[in-house]
Amino acid sequence: FRIERELRAGIPRGELRLFLQPQFSAAGEVVGAEALVRWQHPERGLVPPGVFVPVAEESDLIVELGVWVMNEACRLVAVADAAGLPLALSVNISPRHFRKPEFNSWARSVLDRTGAPPERLTLEITEGLIIDNVSDVVAKMRELSALGIHFSIDDFGTGYSSLAYLKRLPIDELKIDKTFVQDAPHDPSDAALVETILAVARQLQLKVVAEGVETAEQAEFLNSRGEVVHQGYLFGRPAPADEWLARWAADA
Ligand code: G
Ligand code: G
Ligand code: MN
Ligand code: NA
């Protein structure tokens, strides 16, 4: 199973699939979704991203993957928009892809071509991206932010960067990593960490999304500590984009 070679051949053959995982307000309304890629391998079946994203990230294959995901995400947003569903979609962006000099002009061209409103798009980046080459990253983020694109820090709290960057960057949202979310109800240090993230977010007026909410106890813990958007198996699993769109259209 030569992952790199097969994925390189598989992307142009249309083997990638876009799954969505919904995000819910405390009141139970769908407020957005995260796009999560899958690989429909001809023999292996549906391959989860944990298997091939790290391999793709070792080369510019991650750029090809990122191009496919962004095109598909923007196409979906435009389709949803035309159907009267204002879908807010979060897309994971690999640091290697974001650092490409042409990232911004390319992102703009995808928006133009698909007609997706930039305000519907949140780019999930990680603390690792921000640590090196800060000034270049800041400039690019500001430019995209001026178009209306939102930014979220994924896996927040797992990196090693200083909190100072939160003030400098046009960030709209923090995603609390699932390891903290899952242990917070019983582990005092994880509980303190979640409370601290919520306090920082309140101060800086950032939205908070909790990832990996699996139990009612975890959801209740979060709701008792602040305003949090929930994403996790308790509320909805990642499923093919078409399935979620059909369901939301039926509910609308
Ligand atoms: O869905 P799952 O939990 O298996 O995802 C595993 C990892 O793959 C997560 O870290 C997630 O951020 C990453 N991932 C999922 N979809 C994408 C994508 O479209 N692009 C990138 N760069 N990473 C993704
Ligand atoms: O790294 P990133 O945050 O992009 O990846 C999110 C990952 O978390 C996805 O692979 C998704 O499948 C996974 N995920 C989403 N909800 C849950 C959950 O409730 N429990 C667990 N264990 N994983 C989840
Ligand atoms: Mn993510
Ligand atoms: Na995460």
UniProtKB/TrEMBL annotation:
The keyword S-adenosyl-L-methionine does not apply. Residues 1-252 form the EAL domain. Keywords: Coiled coil. The keyword Coiled coil applies. This is EAL domain-containing protein.
